[in-house]
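User: For a reading group we're discussing how well predicted structures match intuition. Take Aminotransferase class I/classII large domain-containing protein. Before you show the prediction, I'll give you the sequence so everyone sees exactly what went in.
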Amino acid sequence: MISEKASQIGISPTLKISAKAEAMKAEGIDVVDLSVGEPDFSTPDNVKAAGIQAIEQNFTKYTANDGIPALKEAIINCLKQDFGLTYALDEIIVSSGAKSSLYHLVQALIDEGQEVIIPAPYWVTYPHSVSLAKGKVVIIPTKEEDGFLLTPDQLKSAISPATKALILNNPSNPTGAAYEKRDLEALA
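Assistant: Thanks. Here is the predicted 3D structure of Aminotransferase class I/classII large domain-containing protein, as structure tokens, for the group to look at:
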């Protein structure tokens, strides 16, 4: 019933790991579950109150596909204040989450056979998104002694004429490794 490409994806590795962690906890094993990117605390009261207020004020209609302008302005101001970065309104997109945004981005950019470089360890969603676009996943293992950061030499050696993109998450999920500005400039 579903497409051949979708049937090859299988069960979410994140959910498999989460289920395993829950089973281990049920056996009395002390487990720190890092599988699902969900906080271990309840939604703060001020956030819940703001959501309730928005509903009571009938702020319940569709918004612009790229986000509410006031929110985009707040993001622009935060990026300027916290990081000294300047962006225009049309350079900011607000989405419902990283997984769907990544999927749509890969679908828009990658054609069949084009390569996408992914440093490992990586978020399990990356290869699936590339495979669904019929792209070729190129995994580059990073090393603990390099802080699990991709090096310029590793990147250079992985680039081929078929390379279309590099997925670089900063800070890295799952290692937490963070690239400094100079690291990113060296990779660029």
